[in-house]
Amino acid sequence: MDIVSINEVGPRDGLQNIKNILSVDERLKLIRSLEEAGIKLIEIGSFVSHKAVPAMSDTDELISQLGNIENYSVLIPNEKGLDKAKNNGVKEICTVLCVTDSMNKKNINQTVKETLRDLKKIFLETKDSGIRSKCYVSVAFYCPYEGKVDSCYVEDVIGLLLDYKADEIVIADTIGAANPREVKKLLSSIINNYKDINMSCHFHDTRALGLANVYASLDAGIKKFDSCIGGLGGCPFAPNSSGNLATEDLVSMLEMMNITTGVNLDKLISSRELASEFTHMSLKGRMI
Amino acid sequence: MDIVSINEVGPRDGLQNIKNILSVDERLKLIRSLEEAGIKLIEIGSFVSHKAVPAMSDTDELISQLGNIENYSVLIPNEKGLDKAKNNGVKEICTVLCVTDSMNKKNINQTVKETLRDLKKIFLETKDSGIRSKCYVSVAFYCPYEGKVDSCYVEDVIGLLLDYKADEIVIADTIGAANPREVKKLLSSIINNYKDINMSCHFHDTRALGLANVYASLDAGIKKFDSCIGGLGGCPFAPNSSGNLATEDLVSMLEMMNITTGVNLDKLISSRELASEFTHMSLKGRMI
């Protein structure tokens, strides 16, 4: 049977930059609704500066209300974030490396080299603590400041992250500028060079190529995708990055292709309605 | 160099079912504007019943005003239409075969077998007259009345059309229901079974999979696509078929992939503005 895993990033990537900040109770209701629709993996929040990203405040309170922390991941920007994650019993953390210096500086005011040094420590610590670690390789195709990113360089950076024992690499087209041909080419090459890599993909639908890029990734052998209910989100520091690939679009296409997702599309639309209500936005995918 | 041909079907498929019928002068202006943008091949109209499809009236007058008839094609439903095409100096005709009886009956009140018999005669006559013949294999993936269409059967029908000497086969996802996986599978299989086939694709974007299906087709080896300025159109007899793949989306994606189309995107957007003005519709692709 053909199965694809979906990692819902709405509660973190979708909400982090939202105008109408959701309460912990609303975030909790949205997460429960997504679970009710059959979503198994959810990035529920982040331990970042409350001042910089107020929408992600009280992630500790959210975790405490969720009770069970299995199948949830939390984004952390640094070791301080990791400490908070550990203190809150988080089982999976997400880290971010923007592979260009310009973008990485905008994001966390570090060069790529500096972040790699920190990630090495973080992954050592997560291994010791039995926490699963993911690393977003952000702007993996195009950078809003530096343009087309050299794919050989991206592969070398991934090699380092694997040396540092990151458990999962998430290839992110942060500004939704990649085309399916280059997606297939990069992913196939990575899989060829790093045979045992555990890799998933994170697409933005800025230029309406999200679904084409998912198809290209499936063709390259990818079996896990990030997506975001209602296509919410986008990075606050990357111009024109608005709009993650909508979870309902991803599920629709996969189900049309007879690929099992375990997600009930009708219930997912109810989750979208809830997200629309809480964010005061009229959310809609491209397919449905 | 990687080159893809675009056959603009806006003046026929895009306008045939339009509420606000365009004058011959407006149709002429739209065609000239598309040519100015670099579009080389255009389906300019059809010789069908004026009563059934009033928007396609005066195609003979349009041809006479166009002067040169090279690079234009005209749709004909039967031998009577072929006579008109011949009388008007048409160099390329398009025929339509819906591969399910239910859909073919709705379209031209014939069974598939009856249409195949007529097409055999038509292609004999075009060969004798030095006219190039195309055949749309319509509802090639899904029929709105019969559901999923058996791909082996579609291939057998194509085999007959090739025996009858159709010069080009156009695989049409008339209701925009195909997914990229089955597109790649069917097209690869056809290319494998009919080595010398001259085949292009015609996608509708009903479920937002037009671009993904184009990518899947490119992957299978297809080098020519139909598309429609502003995503106009849809078959009047196929429920939910609204929205051809927009030419500006097709060109955008191909150019992003470094595939040469010869089309100037800025000028194409001007053509879309003209189409919006003439149709009184606010036309827009998904990408731009």
Describe the structure in your own words:
Two copies of one chain form a homodimer. Chain A has 288 residues and is α/β, with parallel strands linked by helices. Chain A is built from eleven helices and ten strands. In chain A, the strands form two sheets. An eight-stranded parallel beta barrel of chain A has the order 1-2-3-4-5-8-9-10, surrounded by eight helices. In chain A, strands 6-7 form a two-stranded antiparallel sheet. In chain A, helix 3 (59-66) links the parallel strand 2 (41-46) and strand 3 (72-75). The longest helix of chain A is centred in the middle third of the chain and has 18 residues, at 112-129. Chain A is globular. At the A-B interface, helix 8, helix 9 and helix 10 of A face helix 8, helix 9 and helix 10 of B.
- Find the biggest chain interface: A-B, 22 and 22 residues
> What does the largest sheet of chain A look like?
8 strands, parallel, barrel
Overall tally of domains of chain A: 1
Please state the second-level CATH architecture of chain A: Alpha-Beta Barrel
**CATH homologous superfamily label of chain A:** Aldolase class I
- Determine the mean pLDDT of chain A: 95
Cα-atom Rg of chain A, whole angstroms? 17 Å
Please tell me what the overall shape of chain A is: globular
Compute the number of helices of chain A: 11
Give the DSSP E fraction of chain A (strand runs of 2 or more residues). 15-25%
CATH topology of chain A: TIM Barrel
CATH class of chain A equals Alpha Beta
Low-confidence stretches of chain A: none
Helix share of residues of chain A?
Answer: 40-55%
